[in-house]
Amino acid sequence: MNATPPIADLGPLNRAREQKAWFFYDWANSAFATTIAGVLFAPYLIAVAEEAAVDGRVSVLGAGIDPDALPAFVITASTILSAIILPPLGALADRTARKKDLLAGFAWAGAAAAAVLFFMTGDNWQIGVVSFIVANLCFAASTVFNDAILPIISTESERDRVSSRGWAMGYVGGGLLLALNFVLVSFHDSFGLSQGLAVRISLLSAAVWWAAFTFIPFRGLTNHPPRAVERVEGGLVASSFGQLWSTLRELRRYPVALTFLLAYLFFNDGIQTVIAQASVFGVEELGFEQGTMLAIYLLVQFVAVGGALFFGAVARRYGAKQVILAGIAVWMLIVTAALVIPAEQLVWLIVLGVAIGVVLGGTQALARSYFSLLIPRGKEAEFFSFYHLMDRGTSWFGTLTFGIVVQVTGSFRPAVFALVIFFLVGGLLLLRVDTERGIRDAGNERPVTV
């Protein structure tokens, strides 16, 4: 009697195929994060608003706003709306199999809104404000769905590697398009374009890039059925709000995940403030031209590719938590260096940019994969919505501290150094995170290295 031949386990091959497709969403959406949100939108919005200003002010809901402050208020409005919208969307995503469809739908809606920025010209600043808020909200929502797919397409032992490669792909894609747009804007005369038109084309290119490359994860990912979803009365929308309420009541069952979220709030706020204020620090305190700082921004982008991959490789040996802690220690050295770095010395600025690039990609990539170990199955999107609330909804703590110190001292150096408290508190909280217990509480399998 012939024995039945063993059936090959196609799970690893299927996961690898989906992971390759998943990488490309970081590649796709980073165009918006770098070219639009990171570099071009704010200064162009200010320039357009200044054309419409009366007595140096534009009217926003009846209030007179300085055009220089307008981008900050737009981003603040967007983050507040994110704090309201993301948790219900996360709960909805956990109750449906159509996560990749939601990812792509919000990505394409965001790209469409971003494309409208091309028509922000003359004194029509209002269209830019509305379009950016919609695009930024859709960007945030699509990122929640994207991160929620990570635990579904990778085992616990694969996640550091997969997350790190995704971040690396994002830095490559965002940096490549930004470099092309840098050439277009910097040498617009050579292309027969005005500077304004070159900026608008660059904004449009990011929207097209975002939309076009989203087709790769949309075609390559599979819609997986919900896992371990709680029974809640009502239809899909009503039951999603029911699940959100249930999760909020039961968060105390996951104290390790909560402790990590609190740690992430602090150290990520420090990271985001350094990135947001680096250009101002370089121009106003160190005396460099804006073009030089843009070149440093590009340097950071491409160094971050290697940083993400390097941190992912080290985490496979020492565990994500230990490597994140090492990254936080380097961040503390970076903000301390701001006190002593000499002005108008390009070599030291480059050294600082390289250091930022190495830890930027690594800490962000590993934070995402590490948190995925602490999430209970069936609530991936919901928990990642809370994760992104720590990322976006509270991102003004660091900038507020930065602004207060500048106001009091009149210098950017102590303002940058003041951010050391965010890394210190975040690191101390992370030390209290019991990884083994968090994995058990969430019902996940222990990876090879913790």
TrEMBL record:
Gene3D superfamilies: MFS general substrate transporter like domains (1.20.1250.20). One of its GO terms (molecular function) is transmembrane transporter activity. Coiled coil: none annotated. Residues 256-450 form the Major facilitator superfamily (MFS) profile domain. It comes from the Bacteria. The chain crosses the membrane at residues 27-49, 69-90, 102-119, 125-145, 166-185, 197-218, 254-275, 295-315, 322-341, 347-371, 383-406, 412-431. Keywords: Membrane, Transmembrane, Transmembrane helix, Transport. GO terms for cellular component: plasma membrane. It is a multi-pass membrane protein. The keyword Nucleotidyltransferase does not apply. It is found in: Cell membrane. Its main location: membrane. The keyword Transmembrane helix applies. InterPro entries: Atg22-like (IPR024671), ATG22/LtaA_families (IPR050495), MFS_dom (IPR020846), MFS_trans_sf (IPR036259). This is MFS transporter. It comes from Nocardioides antri.
